[in-house]
Design a protein that fits this description.
Blueprint lengths: L1 H23 L4 E8 L11 E4 L5 E3 L5 E6 L5 E6 L6 E5 L6 E4 L10 E2 L7 E2 L8 E3 L1 H6 L5 H4 L6 E7 L2 E6 L11 E4 L2 E2 L20 E8 L3 H4 L6 E7 L7 E11 L9 E14 L3 E13 L30 E2 L4 E4 L3 E4 L3 E2 H4 L3 E16 L2 E17 L3 E18 L2 E11 L4 E2 H8 L14 H16 L11 H8 L9 H11 L14 E10 L9 E13 L13 E16 L4 E12 L5 E13 L2 E12 L3 H5 L1 E3 L3 E4 L16 E2 H18 L1 H8 L14 E13 L4 E13 L2 E9 L12 H8 L3 E9 L4 E13 L4 E13 L16 E13 L2 E10 L2 E3 L9 E3 L2 E12 L4 E8 L6 E2 L6 E2 L2 E9 L7
Parallel strand pairs: 1-7, 13-16, 36-41
Antiparallel strand pairs: 1-4, 2-3, 2-5, 5-6, 8-9, 10-15, 11-12, 13-14, 15-16, 17-18, 17-52, 18-19, 19-24, 20-23, 21-22, 24-25, 25-26, 26-27, 26-28, 27-29, 29-30, 30-31, 31-32, 32-33, 33-34, 34-38, 35-36, 37-40, 38-39, 39-42, 40-41, 42-43, 43-44, 44-45, 45-48, 46-47, 48-49, 49-52, 50-51
Helix pairs in contact: 7-8, 11-12
Length: 932
């Protein structure tokens, strides 16, 4: 019944839309014309033609011709634009003869139009904050293997590669492999799997064939985009099927792992197809499919990271060695008379699946109800495998994301609804897998395999017996011989039994296996309206808002949700006013946004900016920005009992009835009490020792989790120093508070305080009798820190058609008086730079691009290595491509390389070393667009 109801409603809805549109478009007029280069008088293919104030538009053909049909009751104005040319507005006085438009070549990219800086169209030079853009031509000509990887060449960007299918973008510090401080939108849709709490790079994003533009807004953008845009936003736009019609096909093959000591060279394949068609400028659809597969990079850093072993004694010969990319050897015991010993681990290469893929399917229907009103329905399905470095190395295996989008878009407004639903499928934790396999084969001294719960202790008992000379055939005091004896029966990688146990354990979710279960979903509704016309264009006024609902489900493996899904919601509303002054030389903009999450107090995030255009070539900007970040679903609702400690999210409802925040001691004070009691008990007796030391106990005062905050100021300049040299520079300073972190407390059975307000002796006795439970709580640190930085970008165009670009970024972190344990890791190099060189027509139909990236070394701090710093060495890499256009075949041949010099580079401690990728691609485009 429910399905039939929805079907009936949709049928009536589309019938209503058709009726309106048929009436609205009954009277129309047609304009024809051509677009030319004013110097060469050659036709310009791919120029965009749009009716001013309407959604109606088209593109010029290979001969430069266009035809556009529209209903217009007043003066008809056409806006014509093309990459590399200055946009032009043409007033059409008669429609009975073709019009001729000559576009003037642009002197720089500063004529570009951007949307992301203010959520409205504006010239790049007059954007109130720093913004970077890749247009369709830049995307097509990037030397990197994919357009997403090419974002790394924009100034201010930090890109971290966890694997072939997963790259993470960050701006302005506090980088991580899973960046929940950075927002990523595709056509206005947040494409994060809700259970992750961050976007998984472009794994569930756009194919290269369907990517039209990329805009990057570094820094706090919460005033316009809400809580996820704490440290920046990446806005990607797909190709409109009305504008980009026809068939496009990409065939890309390549090779990686060249000179890799871990494996032989491997094939890389990335294929895509796109088809779009429009009917009478009223209805259009598009279909996209892409599939990439290859052999992932191997994580093979076997550095001994056991911090309890002196640095000069660490290494492969250390009996307690804990190799970074080996799992199972984290299990360590201190054996009497022997010292620390770790279990034998399994190398990551035997536990994960390095054969990775990414499948992306997309379709969209566009219907123009009137020339100023368009309805859109889009569905995206993506599935793939990646290796991700988080608190562990995870095999995101067959993970899928399904998205639906409904949108009603006018010339001055939009209303949008979308949903995201994830399924973890066969994903698993490689570290847990190594530990669990280690618990399947251990034998006792009689040769019998013991149960998993006894395996670790039995293994250490075998080791101690062999080392202590209790086994006649094993020499005493020999760590190598003792380990070999303890490892008898060990499952060997590649064996049938090893593979059987691997498959079994990855299929078990929760603490008894390695599998991961997440079937979390969210739906989101948002809208925006431009009220400028209501104010008679005296000021530009924008208002909007959103509502989001989360539905979490892990079946008790991560959250306390065996009884049903956990749901919560958040909403926000914003307004922005922009006013031109001084004959349009000064533009003032004020924005404000209020957001409220069900579990937290509401937050107001303002932004104010000024742009002063001294001349048409010199533009100065200044802004004050604020941002905040809501805790992720895991930050709020994780409830995982791992035996000695329970990991507990900081949402008030998550710990209701557990009496943890209300009745617990700090871990440090418990340690102090235990040390004091231990030192006195043999001298004065247990009761007196308890009385003497109980006041060392301190009641915890852990607040429930709250959003992180940032206040930031920025100044910048964009302009033309000469007719061929453009510059963009900025400086920012930000202050951060409320960093989300973990703290450990212990809850006794008795009240922590007595009637006198002092530590309760009964609670102290609970500690001594082990009648306590330890909790790792998610909360916030009150400490303040600051970060600052500057970027400088130069672009020079020669008269011969060469374009040379160079940019540099300086970033600095000031911990001030904060406790280092209370601060998020900055994880950002002080200096990095990019240099690019290209020519689109170095010879007829031949072009090339080079991009060189360098950054200095820095310390990486992450949960994978228990927040212990690991060094990321300085590196540089060179991407290159040469392309040859074949107009008769409507095909472009591209030969390129990411990391041409094949240096194996680590970008995050514990992640793999990434080498070169060499590729050749053929792209057929039925309506291939290039400049003649």
């Amino acid at each position: 019944m429910k399905t039939n109801t929805w079907t009936l409603l949709l049928a009536w809805g589309w019938a209503f839309v058709w009726l309106i549109s048929t009436t609205a478009l009954a009277q129309s007029k047609t304009v024809t014309g051509s677009v030319l280069d004013p110097i060469s008088k050659t036709p310009l293919a791919g120029a965009g033609i749009r009716v001013d104030g309407q959604l109606t538009g088209t593109v010029s053909s290979a001969s430069g011709a266009f035809t556009i049909t529209t209903k217009s009751t007043g003066t008809l104005k056409l806006r014509i634009s093309m990459l590399g040319y200055e946009p032009q507005t043409v007033v059409v006085t008669a429609t009975d003869k073709p019009i001729l438009v000559e576009l003037r070549p642009a002197s720089s990219d500063l004529q570009e139009v951007v949307v992301g800086a203010s959520r409205v169209e504006e010239r790049l030079v007059r954007a109130p904050v720093t913004i970077e853009k890749m247009d369709a031509r830049t995307i097509r000509e990037t030397p990197s293997a994919t357009f997403y990887e090419g974002i790394n060449n924009l100034k201010g960007v930090d890109m971290v590669t966890s694997g072939l299918t997963y790259r993470q973008i960050n701006t302005r510090g506090f980088a991580s492999t899973g960046n929940s401080r950075f927002l990523q939108l595709i056509d206005g849709v947040d494409n994060q799997p809700a259970g992750f709490g961050f976007s998984v790079g472009n794994m569930f994003g756009l194919s290269d064939l369907d990517a039209e533009s990329v805009e990057l807004v570094p820094g706090a953008a919460s005033a316009l985009y809400g809580p996820a845009a704490f440290n920046g936003a990446l806005l990607m736009t797909s190709k409109d099927p009305f504008t980009y019609q026809g068939l496009s096909v990409q065939a890309k093959v390549g090779v990686n792992h060249v000179s890799d000591p871990n494996t032989s060279p491997a094939l890389y394949n990335d294929h895509a197809i796109r088809y779009a068609k429009a009917f009478r400028n009223r209805f259009a659809f598009k279909l996209n499919a892409s599939y990439m597969y290859g052999l992932d990079w191997f994580a093979t850093d076997y550095t001994d990271v056991n911090q309890t072993t002196p640095a000069d004694q660490r290494g492969l010969k250390n009996p307690a060695a804990n190799a970074l990319n080996s799992y199972g050897d984290e299990v360590v015991r201190t054996l009497p008379g022997i010292g620390q010993v770790s279990r034998t681990g399994y190398l990551e290469r035997y536990l994960t699946d390095y054969n990775v893929y990414s499948l992306k399917l997309n379709s969209a229907l566009h219907y123009r109800i009137t020339p100023k009103l368009e309805a859109i329905y889009a569905v995206n399905y993506a599935k793939g495998t990646a290796n991700y470095t988080g608190s562990n190395r995870f095999s995101v295996n067959g993970f899928s994301l399904m998205q639906h989008r409904l949108e009603l878009r006018g010339s001055h407004f939009f209303v949008r609804w979308y949903s995201n639903a994830e399924d973890s499928h066969d994903s698993y934790n490689t570290r847990s897998l190594g530990q669990q396999i280690n618990r399947t084969w251990v034998r006792d001294l009689a040769g019998n395999v013991v149960s998993p719960d006894k395996a670790d202790q039995t293994w250490f008992d075998r080791y101690a017996a062999a080392y202590g000379g209790q086994i006649p055939t094993i020499p005493a005091n020999d760590h190598t011989a003792a380990r070999s004896f303890a490892d008898q029966g060990r499952l060997l990688p590649g064996s049938a039994e090893f593979d059987t146990q691997k498959q079994r354990l990855t299929g078990i979710q929760g603490l008894n296996g390695a599998g991961i279960l997440s079937q979390t979903s969210m739906w989101h509704a948002d809208g925006q309206y431009n009220l400028t016309s209501a104010f008679k264009n005296a000021a530009e006024v924008l208002v909007g808002g959103n509502f989001r609902q989360y539905s979490l489900f892990t079946n008790g493996t991560l959250f306390d949700d065996k009884g049903g899904r956990i749901g919560y919601h958040e909403y926000g509303t914003f307004a922005q006013i922009s006013k031109p002054l001084l004959a349009d030389r000064l533009k003032l903009t004020v924005s404000g946004r209020y957001d409220k999450n069900q579990n937290f107090a509401g937050y107001f995030t303002p932004r104010a900016s000024a742009v002063f255009s001294a001349t048409d070539r010199h533009h100065f900007r200044a802004s004050y920005q604020t941002g905040f970040r809501n805790p992720t679903p895991s930050d709020q609702f994780i409830k995982l009992n791992v035996g000695p400690i329970t990991i507990l999210g900081g949402a008030p409802s998550n710990s209701a009835g557990m009496n943890v925040y209300e009745n617990s001691y700090t871990a440090a004070s418990v340690n102090s009490f235990g040390a004091g009691f231990g030192a006195e008990v043999n001298k004065v007796g247990p009761q007196q020792a308890l009385a003497n030391n109980k006041d060392k106990l301190q009641k915890s005062n852990v607040p429930y989790i709250a959003p992180e905050r940032v206040n930031s100021a920025e100044v910048g300049y964009r302009g033309l120093l000469t007719s061929n040299l453009s510059v963009d520079a900025n400086y920012y300073y930000g202050v951060y508070t409320n960093f989300i972190l973990n703290t450990v407390v212990l809850r006794p059975n008795s009240p922590v305080l007595g009637t006198d307000g002092k530590p309760n002796p009964a609670a102290a006795q609970d500690i001594l009798n082990s009648r306590v439970q330890a909790f790792q709580l998610y909360t916030n640190a009150p400490d303040k820190v600051s970060a600052q930085g500057a970027t400088l970008g130069l672009t020079y165009r020669t008269s011969g058609g060469y374009q040379l670009g160079a940019n540099g970024t300086w970033s600095a972190f000031n911990i001030r008086n904060a406790d280092p344990n209370n601060v998020a890791a900055f994880n950002t190099p002080r200096f990095k730079t990019n240099v690019t060189l290209g020519h689109r027509n170095i010879a007829p139909n031949l072009g090339f691009n080079l991009a060189w990236h360098w950054q200095e070394s820095f310390d990486w701090v992450g949960s994978f290595n228990a927040l212990i710093p690991g060094r990321v060495p300085a590196y540089h890499l060179l991407d290159a491509q040469v392309n040859y256009r074949m107009p008769a075949l409507k095909t472009v041949l591209k030969l390129g390389a990411s990391n041409l010099t094949n240096q194996y580079i680590v970008q995050a401690y514990g992640s793999p070393a990434v080498g070169g990728l060499y590729y050749v691609s053929l792209v057929f485009d039925q309506h291939l667009r290039w400049r003649h």
